Amino acid sequence: MASEVNGVDLRVSIGSLKLKNPVMTASGTFGYAREFEPYVNLHRLGAVVVKGISLEPRFGNPPPRIVETSCGMLNAIGLENVGVERFISEKMETLRQVNVPVFVNILGDTLDEYREIASRLAGVEGIAGIEVNISCPNVKKGGVAFGTDPEMAAVVTKAVKENSTVPIMVKLSPNVTDITVIARAVEDAGADAVSLINTLIGLAIDHRSRKPALANVIGGLSGPAIKPVALRMVYQVAQAVSLPVIGVGGIETTEDVLEFMLAGATAVQIGTANFVNPRASEEAVEGLAHYVATERLGSIREMIGGLVLP
Amino acid sequence: MASEVNGVDLRVSIGSLKLKNPVMTASGTFGYAREFEPYVNLHRLGAVVVKGISLEPRFGNPPPRIVETSCGMLNAIGLENVGVERFISEKMETLRQVNVPVFVNILGDTLDEYREIASRLAGVEGIAGIEVNISCPNVKKGGVAFGTDPEMAAVVTKAVKENSTVPIMVKLSPNVTDITVIARAVEDAGADAVSLINTLIGLAIDHRSRKPALANVIGGLSGPAIKPVALRMVYQVAQAVSLPVIGVGGIETTEDVLEFMLAGATAVQIGTANFVNPRASEEAVEGLAHYVATERLGSIREMIGGLVLP
Amino acid sequence: MPQFQKKTQIIRIERFASDIVRLTLDSPDIASVARPGQFVMIRTGNGKDPLLRRPFSISQTSNQKHFQILFKVVGRGTLLLSHCREGEFLSVLGPLGSGFTVDCQRMNCLVGGGMGIAPLLFLGKTLSRTCPENSPLVVVGSRTKEELEPLVNDFNEIGLTVHPATDDGSLGHHGLVTDVLKKLDLRGDSEIFVCGPHPMMAAVHFFCEERGYACQVSMETSMACGMGACLGCIVPVKNGAYAHACSDGPVFDSKELLWQVR
Amino acid sequence: MPQFQKKTQIIRIERFASDIVRLTLDSPDIASVARPGQFVMIRTGNGKDPLLRRPFSISQTSNQKHFQILFKVVGRGTLLLSHCREGEFLSVLGPLGSGFTVDCQRMNCLVGGGMGIAPLLFLGKTLSRTCPENSPLVVVGSRTKEELEPLVNDFNEIGLTVHPATDDGSLGHHGLVTDVLKKLDLRGDSEIFVCGPHPMMAAVHFFCEERGYACQVSMETSMACGMGACLGCIVPVKNGAYAHACSDGPVFDSKELLWQVR
Ligand SMILES: Cc1cc2nc3c(=O)[nH]c(=O)nc-3n(C[C@H](O)[C@H](O)[C@H](O)COP(=O)(O)OP(=O)(O)OC[C@H]3O[C@@H](n4cnc5c(N)ncnc54)[C@H](O)[C@@H]3O)c2cc1C
Ligand SMILES: Cc1cc2nc3c(=O)[nH]c(=O)nc-3n(C[C@H](O)[C@H](O)[C@H](O)COP(=O)(O)OP(=O)(O)OC[C@H]3O[C@@H](n4cnc5c(N)ncnc54)[C@H](O)[C@@H]3O)c2cc1C
Ligand SMILES: Cc1cc2nc3c(=O)[nH]c(=O)nc-3n(C[C@H](O)[C@H](O)[C@H](O)COP(=O)(O)O)c2cc1C
Ligand SMILES: Cc1cc2nc3c(=O)[nH]c(=O)nc-3n(C[C@H](O)[C@H](O)[C@H](O)COP(=O)(O)O)c2cc1C
Ligand code: FES
Ligand code: FES
């Protein structure tokens, strides 16, 4: 694995895992990576996080599932996925051929489901890490409750950690009063990293039909609109925990990545921007390399938490 | 007071207060109303809510206080205001000359301050109602704590209610896990209405200077970016309480107003949009009148909570 | 299948009606590999609002160099696009999705309504070339002559006979394309290729099912990515499951889909 | 004071450098009441991003019909504005803020740097008309001749003598406008009107304080509303308080403000 781009040091660590650069792709926005092969040299990315996987296959929510909002979008995919077995037999097969660390995003409706899916993934070749989705707002059971209650968040973290053979990253919900409380709870429970934020819960209405724009009524808000909230939460969490913090939310450009790193992120995930510019992630890697070179930094790690307070 | 625009019934009630239409302006975005006289026929609005008033005058935060974000803006004005005494002697003087119901937005760092400011305003001529800001994220003490804790929110509500001679509307913070809990708490404590949402807490960073874009570091996010979150919370709160709900957040056009009313709002407040289009509020009144007429509604009230679920 | 993200230059703008525009874009990469039924995702502005790309069928290609899209202004994205000037560049992703599958042995019939005619032009052209012995029938309908005539002319230029229908009777049959379709003398082995408003496609599907014709439909849904990544663009299929319009489609065998009987 | 929200037509676009543009806008309402030092708030696009209007000084008016703004492309808003075409309409709020206060008895001297020259053209014109006996001195500086010369010509046309300075020495003094100012033979009752980058205005303020000259500065801050409603546009004044650039200013007596000694 090439650890440097053009001789520039972009490496960062997430627990025991070394990434060649801090640019990851966000779950649910990058498919199973192969969709982006026409556009991106996947091996140049820091890591990819695949679409959320549950124990059993899910059909997901009925249409419409997405709607655009001002500088953002709402989605209520409802966690459509092939289930862990087919994920391992079909998707991992092709993912292994891509020379990039793969994080598997997992979710469950019950503690047992989290435990089972983690055990099932344990030891599967080619999985670099697990991202535990405790925050998805779309499924009524499970998701919301786990991510908004520090105790439940801790219990899930522990269950997954105990059954995993790779570093685990817990993905936090922004729909809480104090995200640092949840972050500290999952840190204490053994998480190797936290990623944030998942989507903000939102609603869109079509005034003509007087109906919700999404069949599921509510959905998750993502994109540039939420960036200020994500950046604030990353800043708060980075000060509250000593784990690596992975910044997510409205990131599209190199400048966005730099801002999240200044706020305290060790790495970032690019989400909705992949839809607009499929090359966003690779362009950010290139941009960071350029930045480190022109600013003559020893490494990109110098940016982490480098925010200068007034 | 003309209760109909072009013979169309736009009237709504907030507690004992009858408004000629549901379009209000949001605190902090409409000055003391007179600033908008060149652009708006103020007497055509449902009501205006003035900038937040504290017991003592406040200078507010140092600059920069505002920064634009994607489809939104962050502000950290820090509640600059002339204090309740000068507000009464200077600002109310001119506000009384405008033929429109005036809500005074109040805030305090302590329970006593809320109580005192409410008593001081009690009986002052020309005040139609009080909006209690328990949600401002900019002042370290008071604001955040009151608005995110149901008990504190209730205590403040009760204190203001007991000392007020006019209907009180409590303005809720969106930076909470479950806004319906707070809404129910202030309902039980005697609020006449709830308004929501105040700004989402956000952060912007200038990657060149590596500094926060605002001197206060964090600020409040407003504008179209937050509309889906506001709409969702209005929808949730309208189902949870039987008080009138006043919708705020990213509202600019007639269509936006209709969407908030469908979600359950009895009235709305237009905020950031006033900066972009100072005529936004009056245009929304005109748009609603047109809508009621062309859709042949008995009154605009038919829209309240009219969302059609799939 | 090759896919590209390209800045393509607008080399021609045609306005068929106040709200109907055809753009000719210069992109040898996309034009040379595109197949009928495929689409592109286009950024309609440079800012972050509108945020997402918009999907448009590839409506014709020429000389393996240019391709066209034909669209109607229905919202902010298409409005922005309609304000573009010749010489400007648009960011385009494509070609995306599966195309139509054609069988020269069958009696082929293209049925298009409104902007659904766009991909059928490309299909008609390809059919005339690949099945020279077997000209497809073409039934297309639109609101009015003004917007339909240029497209009818394009079909005629390829040498295809068109049965037009308009809502106002200003060109061809006064009424629905489905009326026209039903009156055609179709062979038992007919395959109908249909693209248009959902109710029209449903009607054609049921008609084909009744008659035992094969039927391919091109489905429109909201799309965020166009490449199978967001899972937003679903269409209901049998057994409560969903197919993805962008990657499994947009062209489907109509029998695979779940149609609401109206 | 009258203020308007108007759709104004762009009747002329001049490009002085790749990133410096002057627009002439048609608005009798605004042009006929505007005073030097006032500004307008302009929507730079039709979408919601960029969201806020951008402030620009009124740089000249003519015939009570047209007014001009002169701007430099520094970000997304100004970039969008620079792409406008003649004939298009821009939404403008104005005229806003207080203007310069002039006293014909004093020796008046206009000092401008970069885009800060914009409002001084208007001021120069007004001074020539209202104080015909007493031509003001004009000291203006910019990066290079290319962008400064058209403005110098405009001052010359009003009959004013200009002392130019450029960063690269391509026109006039090679260096800062403050160097030029310091070498001028100024009377004790001089009043300096200054607009430009903050460090330049601070330097001029301290210079005036030292010499006992009156000094009016035009302050630039971020602004959301331009009309005193948002309280976002503050400049620090004495005693820890703040003034609002849009409504108390943008023109201030420099002695009222808090200047950081550099
Ligand atoms: C595969 C595919 C191919 C398409 N090909 C063409 C084409 O060749 N020509 C053409 O004119 N249009 C085509 N469309 C539809 C086109 O993508 C939409 O009209 C466009 O996205 C609308 O964007 P907007 O910003 O103008 O409208 P928006 O502001 O996004 O929406 C305005 C209105 O249009 C409706 N709308 C939005 N998207 C769609 C959609 N996909 N289908 C139906 N209604 C929609 C919305 O519900 C809303 O009422 C195609 C769609 C798909 C999925
Ligand atoms: C009263 C007033 C009058 C003005 N008159 C003129 C004028 O006549 N000609 C002219 O070219 N400009 C003038 N400006 C500045 C002009 O408003 C900004 O350049 C413009 O808002 C930048 O918008 P943008 O979207 O291009 O840049 P943004 O994307 O908003 O910002 C790009 C960069 O410019 C900086 N910037 C933004 N606003 C300002 C500002 N107000 N002052 C200094 N730096 C800023 C930002 O910090 C950022 O680094 C004036 C400002 C004020 C307050
Ligand atoms: C269409 C879509 C699907 C998503 N699916 C998942 C998912 O399966 N699991 C998850 O943890 N997050 C999911 N997310 C959330 C993103 O990973 C990310 O946290 C969020 O979109 C914010 O980042 P962005 O603004 O860059 O998109 C999804 C987001 C979108 C837009
Ligand atoms: C510049 C600014 C100042 C504000 N000041 C106050 C205030 O003093 N009191 C208050 O309750 N809300 C204040 N708000 C919040 C608004 O009233 C409103 O709740 C919020 O901006 C969301 O609505 P919008 O998206 O329409 O702006 C302020 C908002 C802005 C942008
Ligand atoms: S549009 Fe994203 S999966 Fe089809
Ligand atoms: S810009 Fe809003 S108060 Fe000055």
Description of the structure:
The complex is a heterotetramer, with two copies of chain A (310 residues) and two copies of chain C (262 residues). With 310 residues, chain A is an alpha/beta fold. Chain A has one domain: Aldolase class I (TIM Barrel, Alpha-Beta Barrel), CATH 3.20.20. Helix content of chain A is 31%, strand content 22%. Chain A has nine helices and 18 strands. In chain A, the strands form five sheets. An eight-stranded parallel β-barrel of chain A has the order 5-6-9-10-11-12-17-18, surrounded by seven helices. Chain A has a four-stranded antiparallel beta sheet with strand order 7-8-16-13, with no helix packed on it. A two-stranded antiparallel sheet of chain A has the order 1-2. The radius of gyration of chain A is 18 Å and the shape is globular. Chain A starts with a strand and ends in a 16-residue tail after the last helix. About 2% of the residues of chain A have low confidence. Chain C has two domains: 92 residues, Translation factors (Elongation Factor Tu (Ef-tu), domain 3, Beta Barrel); 149 residues, Nucleotide-binding domain of ferredoxin-NADP reductase (FNR) module (Rossmann fold). Chain C is globular, with a radius of gyration of 17 Å. The model of chain C has no long low-confidence stretch (mean pLDDT 93). Chain C is of the alpha/beta class and 262 residues long. In chain C, the strands form three sheets. Chain C has a seven-stranded antiparallel beta sheet. In chain C, strands 11-10-9-8-12-13-16 form a seven-stranded mixed beta sheet, with helices on both faces. Chain C has a two-stranded antiparallel sheet with strand order 14-15. In chain C, strand 1 and strand 2 form a beta hairpin. At the B-D interface, strand 7, strand 8 and helix 8 of B face strand 14 of D. The complex binds flavin-adenine dinucleotide (FAD) (2 copies), flavin mononucleotide (2 copies) and FE2/S2 (inorganic) cluster (FES) (2 copies). The site of one FE2/S2 (inorganic) cluster has 14 residues of chain C, from loops.
